[in-house]
Amino acid sequence: MKKSKRPLIQIGSKNVFNFKVMNDFIKWLESDGNILFSNVDICLIDKSVGYGLFAKENVRLNEVLIKIPEKYIITADFVSNIKEYSDILNRFVFDFSELLALFFAFERVYLDYFCKQFGSLNDGTAYFVQWTLEMPNGFEQFLDCRKKLMNEKRNESDFWWKSYIGILPRNFSTPLFIYYLKENGQAKIKEIACQLPIETKEKLLGQLDELIVFEEKFFKLLLNSSEEDASQIAKELSQDSIIFWREICCWAWHIVNTRSIFTENLSLHSVDKQKSYDKNQKNCSKKKIDEENFGGSLALVPLVDMLNHSPDASCVPFFDKKMGFFKVIAEHHSIVAGQQLFFCYGAHNNDQLWIEYGFRLLENPFNRVNISIDLFVVLAERCGQKVESARREILKKARLPCTIYATDEIPSFALRKNSSILLMKKSKLSNWSQYLFSDEENEYDEEGILTSPEIKLIVSILRKLENALIARRNECLMEEICASWDDQIQILKRMLIKY
């Protein structure tokens, strides 16, 4: 196939920090009298962080800062009610998050290349960006369906999400986004994963698998074929087209994974599930969330998704089912004028934040060192403590976590009890639970805890673990990977400094 030129505007060239684009978004917000954000400023923090929301005036406790009507909340059900996408769902299988990513992929291309653009100097000049690539059959069918509906009853003003998509970031700092599209990108990501702590490794590889699966489904749709393989793609699409659509695919997947909000109270839009979702319902079991609710629970909410993360959050976003609004309130404490508005994305440690959002916090109270029971036993044996099979079984039955959190000043109750099991007299093992939680076993005061045999064993175990983590850290070649080990080493050092 003849190699074609790339489109005039490439995937990363549209500047999200273009103030005209942001002004258009703000004008759209202001044009709907039901959207409330009068006490909120949208400000550019810096190009590495992006935009944030700030309080214009002092905010009282429980004051509503933002209200977004339900009709502007983008969920899988919302997308399935758009005729072009319901037609796709009758032919192809996407789970709920994939359907959302498909929406952002196709809408971005449609709005960038098949809708009028206006000059950046506010001179009112309208133009179309030239499309120079070949047209994949699946996307052409999407365009034909949209044109038909536009001729019947629609116009461009119906696509209210145009202003919203215009302000979405074009690049991300996650390891997946940085490396996925590069030559041998998947191999590089797997190489990085192998140097990370096991929980972080599994998270990164899990995201890689999700993106690979979505890309495979995405290209099947583009080719309008139930079969998809590399040779077939190369036959039907030029290399430039493949690069372009892979960039769009990766970008859209990141939009959903970095900006969606999970809310259990979000009601479902009216949708004929039998018609549109029979195939998709099967694919939602991996979410471990009730299938009836998940489609309405994963949402992208314009403006609300500009709230940045902080463990010490001032705000809480939630869906008011009775009123039909997505709201943001100052729940935890009042807010002084000029302060940034934050909400907590979840109890994410720095590795989770880096993999999912592309940043780390200097002091993150959710950082932790996860010690499995098997690792706990191995470390104890390296400290000279013999661990018989009976004690191993008791440790598993007790199911007491060995996790150490950044906020822990001394070893946790559970960790101390696991140490007690290792030190318990053999005569007590048959009734281990009775002795483990008895008053006699818990009679130490704070000073006694610090000098108890259990603590001495734990300190020995943690020193062994610290040395092992330092050795792993010294093998790292990348700063981001070193940071994963540094966070855990810092937690251990902080606890061990007392002993």
TrEMBL record:
One Pfam entry name: SET
Annotated ranges, domain SET: 38-346
Spans traversing the lipid bilayer: none
Gene3D superfamilies assigned: set domain protein methyltransferase, domain 1 (3.90.1410.10)
Listed GO MF terms: protein-lysine N-methyltransferase activity
PANTHER family from the UniProt entry: SET DOMAIN-CONTAINING PROTEIN 4, UNCHARACTERIZED PUTATIVE METHYLTRANSFERASE
The protein's name: SET domain-containing protein
